[in-house]
Amino acid sequence: xxxxxxxxxxxxxxxxxxxxxxxxxxxxxxxxxxxxxxxxxxxxxxxxxxxxxxxxxxxxxxxxxxxxxxxxxxxxxxxxxxxxxxxxxxxxxxxxxxxxxxxxxxxxxxxxxxxxxxxxxxxxxxxxxxxxxxxxxxxxxxxxxxxxxxxxxxxxxxxxxxxxxxxxxxxxxxxxxxxxxxxxxxxxxxxxxxxxxxxxxxxxxxxxxxxxxxxxxxxxxxxxxxxxxxxxxxxxxxxxxxxxxxxxxxxxxxxxxxxxxxxxxxxxxxxxxxxxxxxxxxxxxxxxxxxxxxxxxxxxxxxxxxxxxxxxxxxxxxx
Length: 319
Hints:
Blueprint (H helix, E strand, L loop, with lengths): L1 H27 L2 E7 L6 H8 L2 H4 L2 E7 L6 H6 L5 E6 H7 L7 E9 L6 E6 L15 E4 L4 H11 L9 E4 L10 E5 L2 H6 L4 E6 L9 E9 H6 L1 H19 L4 H14 L13 E3 L7 H12 L18
Parallel strand pairs: 1-2, 1-3, 6-7, 6-8
Antiparallel strand pairs: 3-10, 4-10, 4-11, 5-8, 5-9
Helix pairs in contact: 2-9, 2-10
C-alpha cells in the first residue's frame, strides 16, 4: 500500500513539475506562424514588426505573403491553411464570413474617419463645381478585392446616380491610369492622384455616414488556428501591439517614414514614395463592436445581406 502511495505521489509530483516547467520551456522555443496579408496600408504593422525585429525578439518564425489572389481566404483560414489573415476588409468578412462568425476572432482592426481617410473618389474634371452628378453614366474604376464597392454602388443608387455596369473597370493592386472618368481609390493612391492637375477629389471617407469611424480592415484568426497554434498566435498578437506602439510614437517619425517608403516599394510596388497620413491601428482592447454592427445593419437594411447573424463571437477573447 505504501509503495502504491509512493508511486502516486511521484506521478503527481512529476505532473506538477511539468505544469510549472513546460510553459517556461515552450516560451523559450521558436514558434512558427503563417500569415496572409492584404497589400495595403492596413497590413503595414506586419511589415514594421518584421523590419524592426519584433518577430525575432519574440522567437517567432513568420512565413508571410502579401496577396489578394486567394479565391476564398476565409475558408483557407478556417481550415488552418494559415493562422492570421491581416488587412482583410471587414466588409468582405460581413459578406462572406458572418454566417460562421463563431469560427473566427477579430484580433485587431484598422479604421478610417475624416481625419484619417483611407478611401475616396477622384474624378477627371476641370470644373470647380463638384457633385455626384459627375459620376452619372461615367466609367468608374473600382478595386476588385474590396466588397465595399458594393456598398458604394448601392449608395450611389440611393442618391439617384446611374452607373453603367459595362463601364466599370476592376483593378487589382494599382488603379489603371487614363482609362476611366472616375475611380474609387485607397491610400496611398488617393494622395497621389490628389496632387495631379488632371484629377480632383470628389469625396473622402466614403462611408462616414454609415459608420464613423468606418471599420476598414481587420486582423482575423480562426478557432482552428488558435487551437493548434495558440502560442504562435499569442506572440503575433504581441508583435502587432509592439509595431503599433512604434508607429504611434512621434519620436520614430523619421524612421517610420523610411519604413513606409520601403513598404511602398517592396509590397505596394510603387515607383515613387507617397507620404500619407497612416490610418488608425487599433489593438484588441481598443476595438468597439458598434461600428461593425452598424455597418452590418446598413447592409441588411439595404438588401446587401439577407441574413441576420450574430457576429458578436468575433469580438471574443484572442490569446
